[in-house]
């Protein structure tokens, strides 16, 4: 859930809570005030009636003529004698013979109670009528609570409406305000995303807001970090390029002398020395190859190597690679099949020398990581990429050991070999090509310099079931 949504929900809930507490307080207050008014009215009516109540000579209640009630009071009156005898009732309740509040008849002091009579809710004041310390009857004065209930009902509806409008307004208001407040953060994350995607440390986050607030501080610090990273990265690339370059010359000299020493009669006479020299020459060649690869990477990264773009046909380059590895393939009963559709593919806009390196690296890996007897197929397809139009997609599919999804991106980074980090301890060394982990990094660097794309798809690593891998390379067609 986004921060904006979370804060909006929080503010709306907070607003809802405040309105609920406020509503409950208003409801209770109005309830108390209304009941107080009814109670005061009932007490007034009861007073008026007790003033006119009389007893006869034997101390019994006389039939009383009730005083005319205030028209607005809307009160019901009953005067009860002893033994449940009704002495007087107000005309408003006619012949009703039930007490307004049965419990109130027993009371020895005035009490107010809510009661139900014939489906109506009443507030009833029961007052004991006492003569010389002796109870001679009870006066009950009641009033309908219909108006109070209706007022409370209306109040709840109004409160609920206010709560809904309040919560909605708070929600919409916070959504809009937070959107404005957080938009610089969205810009930052978008810019960081672009930097990551383009793998370009020279970019900076644009920020046009105030520089003295927290977001401004964050942007400035982040841009400073990027600057520092860029300078570290550049010096590392320069160091790599310089070292590789410096190593190449002595290595070439060493290789030359090795050949001479091996050819000398002193060595040739001794088979053990010949074997040792072969080992040294092989190692030196390998070292030379690694240094060359390192130089390739450094030159691509520092943009010393830039592709010389021209119309390039895939067929001849692929057939050349097929020829280069023919012996190897035969020895291991591997098939490297070039799909016939390659010949019909229109020319690409690419540097043929660099692209040969890309295809070579990918195909060499397919050969390395496919067990004997397997099959490698290279094909080319026209695909439509949104925003880029029609591009050529070269697919190199093998029937090898496969690659786990978590390594699909990282294998294109330099000096990365899956086997080295021991993600799979069992049998991995069997397929470790002994390369320095630079082949795919070089391929990715070259493809990037062509504004193309390279990636791999594979179900996972499995040396027994051999799920295989497919490498995809997308490049533009020549116009
Ligand atoms: P290396 O010099 O080791 O070949 P790469 O950069 O060419 O370095 O490849 C990096 C790693 O990616 C390899 O060590 C290997 O583990 C894995 N890999 C590359 N291609 C394949 C493939 N076709 N099948 C299985 N694993 C592969």
Order of helices and strands: HEEEEEHHHHEHHEHEHEEHHEE
- Ligand roster: adenosine-5'-diphosphate
Termini separation: 46 Å
Q: How many separate domains?
A: 3
Strand content: 15-25%
CATH class of the largest domain: Alpha Beta
Q: What is the typical, i.e. mean, pLDDT? A: 87
* Helix run count: 11
Q: Reading side by side through the largest sheet, how are the strands ordered? A: 2-1-5-4-3
Helix share, percent = 40-55%
Characterize the structure shown.
50% of the residues lie in helices and 17% in strands. It is α+β, with helices and mostly antiparallel strands and 479 residues long. A hairpin with a 5-residue loop joins strand 1 and strand 2. Helix 9 runs antiparallel to helix 11 (439-449). The longest helix is centred in the middle third of the chain and has 53 residues, at 146-198. It is rod-shaped. Bound molecules: adenosine-5'-diphosphate. Adenosine-5'-diphosphate (ADP) binds at residues 361, 365-366, 369, 398, 400-401, 403, 411, 416-419, 433, 435-441, 469.
What's a concise summary of this model?
With 479 residues, the protein is of the alpha+beta class. It contains 11 helices and 12 strands.
Annotation keywords:
479 residues; alpha+beta; Beta-Lactamase; Helix Hairpins; Heat Shock Protein 90; 3 domains; five-stranded mixed sheet; 12 strands; binds adenosine-5'-diphosphate
């Amino acid at each position: 859930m986004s921060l904006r949504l979370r804060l909006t929900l929080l503010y709306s809930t907070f607003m809802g809570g405040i309105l609920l507490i406020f509503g409950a307080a208003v409801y209770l207050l109005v309830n108390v005030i209304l009941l107080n008014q009814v109670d005061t009215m009932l007490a007034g009516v009861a007073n008026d009636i007790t003033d006119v109540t009389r007893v006869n000579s034997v101390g019994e209640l006389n039939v009383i003529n009730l005083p005319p009630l205030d028209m607005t009071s809307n009160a019901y009156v009953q005067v009860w004698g002893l033994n449940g005898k009704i002495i007087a009732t107000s005309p408003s309740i006619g012949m009703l013979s039930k007490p307004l509040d049965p419990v109130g008849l027993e009371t020895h002091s005035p009490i107010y109670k809510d009661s139900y009579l014939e489906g109506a809710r009443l507030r009833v004041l029961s007052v004991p009528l006492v003569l010389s310390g002796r109870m001679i009857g009870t006066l009950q004065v009641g009033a309908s609570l219909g108006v109070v209930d209706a007022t409370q009902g209306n109040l709840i509806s109004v409160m609920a409406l206010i709560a809904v409008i309040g919560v909605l307004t708070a929600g919409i208001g916070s959504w809009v305000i937070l959107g404005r407040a957080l938009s610089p953060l969205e810009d930052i994350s978008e810019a960081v995303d672009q930097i990551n995607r383009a793998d370009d440390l020279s970019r900076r986050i644009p920020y046009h807001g105030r520089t003295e607030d927290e977001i401004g501080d964050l942007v400035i610090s982040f841009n400073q970090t990027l600057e520092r990273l860029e300078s570290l990265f550049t010096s590392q690339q320069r160091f790599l390029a310089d070292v590789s370059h410096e190593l190449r010359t002595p290595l070439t000299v060493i290789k030359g002398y090795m050949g001479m020493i091996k050819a000398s009669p002193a060595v040739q006479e001794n088979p053990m020395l010949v074997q040792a020299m072969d080992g040294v020459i092989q190692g030196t060649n390998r070292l030379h190859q690694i240094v060359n690869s390192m130089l390739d990477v450094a030159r691509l990264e520092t943009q010393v190597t830039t592709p010389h773009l021209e119309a390039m046909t895939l067929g001849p380059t692929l057939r050349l690679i097929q020829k280069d590895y023919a012996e190897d393939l035969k020895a291991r009963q591997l098939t490297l099949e070039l799909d016939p559709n390659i010949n019909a593919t229109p020319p690409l806009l690419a540097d043929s020398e660099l692209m040969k390196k890309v295809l070579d690296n990918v195909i060499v890996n397919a050969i390395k990581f496919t067990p004997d007897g397997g099959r490698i197929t290279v094909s080319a397809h026209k695909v439509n990429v949104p925003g880029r139009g029609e591009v050529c997609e070269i697919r190199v599919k093998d029937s090898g050991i496969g690659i786990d999804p978590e390594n699909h991106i990282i294998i294109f980074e330099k000096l990365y070999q899956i086997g080295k980090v021991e993600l799979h301890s069992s049998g991995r060394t069997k397929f470790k090509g002994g390369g320095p982990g630079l082949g795919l990094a070089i391929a990715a660097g070259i493809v990037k310099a062509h504004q193309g794309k390279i990636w791999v798809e594979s179900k996972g690593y499995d040396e027994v079931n051999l799920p295989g891998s497919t490498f995809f390379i997308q490049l533009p067609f020549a116009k």
